[in-house]
Each structure stands twice: as C-alpha cells, then as structure tokens.
Design a protein that fits this description.
globular; about 375 residues; binds alpha-D-galactopyranose; alpha+beta; eight-stranded mixed β-sheet
Length: about 375
C-alpha cells in the first residue's frame, strides 16, 4: 500500500510544493497473448499494483523527474529533450511528454515524483502504468483532456517511437480504461471494448518466475517479425487478410507450404488464441469458470509449443499449479520469456495455494518466487 502522505511529503521536501497525484495500474492479461498487434482480441484486467506520480508546475520551465524507487533524479531543459530514449528509466515519462508535444499539446515546466509497486520486468506492465500515470499528470498541467483510449494510443506511441519497444496497445489500454472487479475484452482493431464482471470469490495469484524479460530487446521483436512474415504470405494468398485477425486455421493450412515452420507455428498460436480469447470471455459471461480455466490452460500450451514464448521456469510453475485441485486455471501471462504466471483460485484457497507453489518451485529450481495476490482494479485516476 502506498503511504500517500509520505509521498506527498517527499515531493514537497524535494520540490517545495504540494503535488497533485495520479495513479495508473499494472495489468494481468487473462488470455489473448501477442494478439493485440495482430488486430485481434485480448482480455486483460487492471490490478491493484500501481504507479503513482505527484506533479507540480515549475517557474523555470525545466522538467525534473524524481524516481522514489530508484532514488534518482533526471533533469531536462525544455529545448534539450532528447529525440529518442536513452535507455534509462526516465525514457517512459519523457516519451509521453514528447508525444504530447508532437500532438500539439504544450506542457509547462514541471517537477514530478514517481513511485510504484508494479514489479519491473515481471510481465505486469510497469512501463504502461508509468506512461499512463504520466499522461494524466501532464494533461492536468496543460489543462487538456483526452479519453482513455486516446491516452492509451498516445502512451503506446511513446513506447514504440520514443522508448523503442514495438509493443501493441493492450497494456496501455487496460491501464487507462480498466475497472474494479472487471476484466476488459478489447477488440484491438476497432478499440471497442466490453467490461466483463469477474466473480468476486476468485483472485489472481501471480507468481513471479524471477526470470526477467525486456521488450526493447530481442525475443518480442523477433516474434513480431515472424508474425509479420506469416501475415504477408496469407495476404498474398487472400488479399482480404490484412492481419492475422482475418485468417482462419483453414487459411493457414492452405498457406503452410509457403512459409517456414516457425512462422507457421507463430500464426497458428495467434489464430487459435483469438478464438480462445472470445470463447473465454463468453464462458466468463455465462458463469462457466471451469471452461474459462480450461481455455487458460490451452492458451499456455499454445504459447509454449506454438509461439515458443514460455520458459522452463514458467512451465514448471504451471505444471505445479495444475497438480493442485483448487487451481481453476494457470498460464504464463504477458509478453513471454519470463515474468509471472497467472493462477486463478478462490480467495479462501489463495494463501495455501501460493505457499505450495513457492515450495514446489524452490524444490525444482532453487529460486525463491515472489507472489502477488491481486484483484481486478480501477484504471488510471487522480487521487
Ligand atoms: C506485452 C506488450 C503487449 C502485448 C503482450 C503480449 O505486454 O506490451 O502489447 O503484445 O506483450 O500479449
């Protein structure tokens, strides 16, 4: 839990004025992995791990950022905002500032303190939460407003063009538009979305493999390129296929001979994942938790075998979870190659379940896994 008064004092002592506060959550993706940039469906929820920022205007026009987590300050004169990120923590807030400017929104000089409890590199979208919280703060300073989906698009652009990570829209979208006790089914082509109530008795037990991933490097980019390659082949065969969203498994089978095996498998994951994602949302709407859990487990198998974006540690955690009778469903969540597994269990089972997973994981890997017990929470807001 954030000590709000302590954070206000910290900002006041450093910058001499009482800040206005904004918060944006991290997220867990329930199902629909790597489908966002294929214009398909995702089904994430905002969680009660958050980034909070406090902001005050400055008379000298400078931009001064303070990260309470890193205990570091970054200072930029307005005319000296780097054109691209420099590979540091401040790239995320500065990227949002740069994109607001690009959109013609003038932001006066400001001091901003940042704190948060979204674990970094754990597949829970710490970056999106920093971006979205920053966007709210800077819009407030400039006296402008944007809708949640507009904020999400701006923050995605900051991450794509400024930070240099070719991510889709999911994380920023649910951080901006999520709702308490709801998951969000997003059509990543139209950006239409539907908030689906989650049963109150169920919680998310997120277990951190402690294997770090970073989107700006390697594997995520490679997967995107493979997906683009497959899409091009399918488009050549059937021009109406503009993104994998438009393709069926039958289309893919017909095109199989024209693409390398790895590309075929990546496409098979995404096409089948789109079907699983809408089916999972329907199962939840119908109150069918058993079917929902079954689809989550099927999604993990596809992510592991076809998309090859799991890692041995995550597979161990999912296997251990599935040995437990109280587990409704389990899978690796987020961009892949590390991070957290999502486990759905009833609230009264959560503690015993978490302890058993931690023990089993330690016995097999020698790694102490962190566990975050979360609920679906509100999207970005002022405090
Ligand atoms: C990361 C990206 C998202 C999405 C997921 C995979 O979280 O930021 O846009 O592509 O990976 O589903």
């Amino acid at each position: 839990m954030l000590d709000v008064n302590g954070f206000i004092d910290l900002h006041r002592e450093r910058f001499g004025a009482r800040p206005t506060l904004f918060a944006a959550p991290g997220r867990v993706n329930l199902i629909g992995e790597h489908t966002d940039y294929a214009e398909g469906f995702v089904f994430p929820a905002a969680i009660d791990l958050t980034t909070t920022v406090g902001v005050t205007p400055r008379a000298d026009g400078q931009v001064v950022l303070y990260s309470a987590n890193f205990e570091k300050e970054a200072r930029v004169a307005p005319a000296e905002l780097p054109e691209r990120g420099i590979g540091q923590w401040e790239d995320y807030p500065l990227g949002v500032l740069a994109m607001l400017r690009q959109a013609g929104i003038e932001v006066p000089g400001f001091s901003m303190s940042i704190t948060g409890n979204v674990p970094l590199g754990a597949g829970l979208s710490s970056s999106a939460s920093i971006e979205v919280a920053t966007a709210l703060a800077l819009l407030h300073l400039s006296g402008k407003t944007m809708t949640g989906p507009e904020i999400a698009k701006l923050c995605q652009k900051a991450e794509n063009e400024y930070v240099g990570a070719p991510v889709g829209i999911m994380d920023q979208f649910v951080s901006a538009c999520g709702a308490e006790d709801h998951a969000l089914l997003l059509d990543c082509r139209s950006l239409d979305y539907h908030l689906a109530p989650l049963p109150h008795e169920v919680v998310f037990v997120l277990v951190n493999t402690m294997v770090k991933h970073a989107h700006a490097d390697g594997a995520y980019k490679v997967r995107r390129a493979e997906v683009a390659e497959g899409t091009e082949v399918l488009h050549g065969m059937k021009p109406e296929i503009r993104a994998l969203r438009d393709a069926t498994l039958e289309d893919l089978e017909r095109a199989k001979g024209q693409m390398p095996e790895n590309v075929y498998k990546r496409c098979r994951h995404i096409i089948s994942e789109n079907t699983r994602t809408t089916a999972a949302a329907a199962a939840l709407d119908a109150g069918n938790l058993k079917e929902f859990g079954r689809l989550l487990v099927a999604a993990h198998a596809s992510y592991r075998d076809d998309f090859e974006a799991s890692c041995p540690e995550a597979d161990i955690l999912v296997e251990l979870a599935l040995e437990r009778p109280e587990c409704i469903g389990a899978r690796l969540t987020g961009g892949g190659f590390g991070g957290c597994t999502l486990n759905l269990v009833r609230a009264e089972d959560a503690d015993a379940f978490a302890v058993s997973l931690q023990r089993g994981y330690f016995a097999k890997t020698g790694i102490d896994a962190e566990v975050y017990r979360c609920r679906a929470s509100a999207g970005a807001h002022s405090l």
